[in-house]
Amino acid sequence: xxxxxxxxxxxxxxxxxxxxxxxxxxxxxxxxxxxxxxxxxxxxxxxxxxxxxxxxxxxxxxxxxxxxxxxxxxxxxxxxxxxxxxxxxxxxxxxxxxxxxxxxxxxxxxxxxxxxxxxxxxxxxxxxxxxxxxxxxxxxxxxxxxxxxxxxxxxxxxxxxxxxxxxxxxxxxxxxxxxxxxxxxxxxxxxxxxxxxxxxxxxxxxxxxxxxxxxxxxxxxxxxxxxxxxxxxxxxxxxxxxxxxxxxxx
Length: 250
Ligand code: PEP
What we know:
Distance between the termini: 12 Å
Number of strands: 8
Strand content: 5-15%
Number of domains: 1
CATH superfamily: Aldolase class I
CATH class: Alpha Beta
Bound molecules: phosphoenolpyruvate
């Protein structure tokens, strides 16, 4: 049975004191979360604070992005090795905001995925369609293209050390959640597509749902057979809300 997972994407929010307060509140309420694997992904500069507060905790931490390069003349970039140096275990790659606002192509995302795994980080690979793509019935075509770029470059075995997050772009930060049935249908599609390459890897792979998940809708979503937890944006900034979502994951 796949272990549920909940990851928090703080996006570009918080300063040191807020980050410390947030993780300490989450940490205090953890007792009621049974099995779920938990990860928080703060902005880069808050990683040291979070690492200090969470050292020895069952909550892991990660980043929201990384460079595809190892080191060198890439002003403003952060490498996977640097993230490992600060205790990160995970990194989000291909978030729709990176794809849309920073023009990250499927290939660039695949390169970041590989760079993450090369230094032992677990990539949380985001895929998902825009509203226009959904309305044009292109959801599966888009998700397949995004997946295939990564699997084509990294190989199907790489999915054993990765997590996928299906995040319909129209549901992120909009308050419009995909229905459990809509989400389940895409999650099942992702698993089936990967199963064509390796059924065992596909069965083991955690596929998280992201897009306006809250305490109020988490349980319904997580009850679906191919939804293994959530990637949580806005609601991960509120300790009680985040904890309630973690409890819903199991
Ligand atoms: C996200 O940023 O990945 C996300 C899912 O955001 P939200 O939960 O706010 O929709």
